[in-house]
Amino acid sequence: MTFNVSKTKVARFVVSTLAVGVVALASASPASAAKIGDSCKLKDAYKIEKVGTSYIRCEIVKGTSLHTKDPKKTAKFAWQKTTERQFVIANANKETVRVDGSSTVYPLSAVAAKYFENSTKSVKKGDGAKVTVGFSGTGGGFEKFCRGETDISNASRAIKSTEAAVCVKAGIAYTEVLIANDGLAVVVNKNNTWASCLTMAELKKIWDLNSTVKKWSDVRTGFPATDIKMFGAGTDSGTFDSFTEMVNGKAKQVRKDGVQTSEDDNVTVAGVSGDTGSMGYFGLSYALENESKVKLVQIDKGAGCVTPTNATVQAQQYPLSRPLFTYVKNLSISTKPAVGAYIQFWVDNLKQISEDAIFVPLTNQQMTTLMKEMVAVAKLPRVKK
């Protein structure tokens, strides 16, 4: 699969480790040599084997994590019993699934893709499905999707009516799948000692189309007269749309001066970490990954300062919370078995994939809704080749 190593260390770690496993599949031990409880490695994650009439899969051991600082809870992997359903999903045709869209959803999609590839290649003996994942931004992704260039489009916001109309005109029917939760984290320089919490009104004062704010002292009495340098998401990004809508009340409405934008969140990290007066924003998962370089700001919408965390985002307590989506072309599901299999695999293993990619999982209520959506996906007609 295609992968941009600059997007996230987490996805890079998982994907690069699994890549070794994919190469090794052909020479791996025969299925009969493995049994439930035997240890395995991250490079073999989601590899699946049939043993007699049963099925086993290499999975992370419950209570351990890829991201813990507690050595007692460091990730361990073992062969565990799985279902025939997972084996059937892994037995998808050796096709290429084309994915593009949101840079925010990219790390989550990339981890899901690599786990899926590992699963199919184990069943197909090294010749399974491939998933290419790009990150043209939510808007750019929808443009490709509605031109018929991709099977799946990741999005950090719901599709707009204008974008949907383009798809309709092109005859592209699709299914929206809610895949995760996310918070937009506002970050400042590590040496910023004053802006530990900002109100929504203060954010609007800084970022609004007609803003005249130049220094931190313009934001609140008592703040220093330090110049503000702003960094944000590219204008083709769903993150840009979400932030401007939540903060300024209208998507894409933002001040034109003094803001450096980029589709690459690393630019914001570098900019904010390099200047005391700088501030920026991006997805929570990326902010948590870079806490050693930038400081997360609490946000107050009237009920007090709330720290952006997985828990506050999932509970919708954090003011800058949002859902994340992936859109699947119905025709691709009908004509390319690997597309439906990839989405089903992602949903079936969503909780663990979200945790491994450091994303906020869906609530129980959201999962119930998602399961109903997947029933509709399963009913789409399949065309035999």
CATH homologous superfamily (4th level) name of the domain at 182-321 = Periplasmic binding protein-like II
Number of strands: 16
Helix content: 25-40%
**Main β-sheet, in a few words?**
9 strands, mixed
- Beginning-to-end CA distance, first to last residue: 24 Å
Number of helices: 14
Net shape: globular
Q: Name the helix and strand elements from N-terminus to C-terminus, one letter apiece.
A: HEEEEHEHEHEHEEHEHEHEHEEEHEHHHH
How would you characterize the overall build of this protein?
By secondary structure, the chain is of the alpha/beta class. The protein has a domain at 182-321: D-Maltodextrin-Binding Protein, domain 2. It is built from 14 helices and 16 strands. It has helices at 9-24, 84-90, 106-123, 138-146, 161-169, 200-207, 238-248, 265-273, 284-289, 310-314, 330-335, 337-348, 350-356, 364-378, and strands spanning 39-40, 48-51, 54-60, 77-82, 96-101, 130-133, 152-155, 174-189, 197-199, 229-233, 259-262, 278-283, 294-296, 298-300, 305-306, 321-329. Strand 2 and strand 3 (54-60) form a beta hairpin. Mean pLDDT is 86; it is low at 1-10 and 15-32.
Can I get a quick summary?
This protein is an alpha/beta fold and 385 residues long. The protein has a domain at 182-321: D-Maltodextrin-Binding Protein, domain 2, CATH 3.40.190.10.
Topology:
Layout: H1 9-24, E1 39-40, E2 48-51, E3 54-60, E4 77-82, H2 84-90, E5 96-101, H3 106-123, E6 130-133, H4 138-146, E7 152-155, H5 161-169, E8 174-189, E9 197-199, H6 200-207, E10 229-233, H7 238-248, E11 259-262, H8 265-273, E12 278-283, H9 284-289, E13 294-296, E14 298-300, E15 305-306, H10 310-314, E16 321-329, H11 330-335, H12 337-348, H13 350-356, H14 364-378
Parallel strand pairs: 5-6, 5-7, 9-14, 10-11, 10-12
Antiparallel strand pairs: 1-4, 2-3, 3-4, 7-16, 8-12, 8-13, 8-16, 14-15
Helix pairs in contact: 1-3, 4-5
